[in-house]
Amino acid sequence: MVHTVINDKNKPGYLLCPVVDARNNEAYYALYDEKGNELLKTTVGVIDINTFHDYSGKKILFFGDGVDKWITFTDNSPYFIINQEIKTDAIHLVVPAYKHFSYKLFEDITYFEPFYLRDFIPRNSSAKINKVLYNSGK
Predict the structure, then answer these.
(1) Domain spans, the chain
(2) Which of 93, 94, 100, 109 qualifies as a cystine partner to 105, CB 3.0-4.6 A?
(3) d(CA 83, CA 60)
C-alpha cells in the first residue's frame, strides 16, 4: 500500500499516513517517510491534531478508508493533505509477498503468533443468542 504512494511523483517530500477505521471510536494508523521508512509504528487509537505534534511543519498525506471519519483537523492546513483516491487494498502486498517467496522467507507456522494491536476482550453473547432463540416469535 505505501509502495504505491511512494511512487506518486506528485507528492515528493510528504510523510505518508495510512488510516484505517478500527471501529470502537478508534483507527489504525502509522507514519512513513517518502521512502517507506517507518517513523511511527502502527498504532490503534484516537487520532487528533496532537497525534502528529512531533512532525509539525512536515507535510503529511493521509489516505485509507478511515480518513473521512478521523482526519477532521486539516482545516485548510498546507501541511495536512487528504487523498481519497488512494485506497487500501491487499493487491499492494503482491510485490513484497513475491519477494519473500523468491528469497524463501517463510514463517514457521508451528511457532507463528499473530500480532494484535488491540487486546482481545471476549464478549458475552449469551443474552443475544437467547433472545434470538427463545424470543423470536414474541
Answers:
(1) 2-88
(2) 100
(3) 10
**To the nearest whole number, what is the mean pLDDT of the chain?**
82
CA–CA gap between residue 46 and residue 107 (Å, rounded): 32
Query: What cell does 88 get?
Result: 487500501
- The sheet with strand 80-82 has its strands ordered as 38-45, 26-32, 15-23, 60-63, 80-82
Place of cell 483537523: 73
Total-model pTM = 0.69
CA atoms of 15 and 38, how far apart (whole Å): 10
The CATH number of the structural domain formed by 2-88 is 3.30.420
The stretches in the chain having pLDDT less than 70 are 1-11, 120, 122-123, 136-138
d(CA 7, CA 84): 16
Q: Whose CA is closest to 74, among 52, 96, 91?
A: 52
Q: Determine the 3-state secondary structure of 82 from DSSP.
A: strand
What was the pLDDT predicted at 85? 84
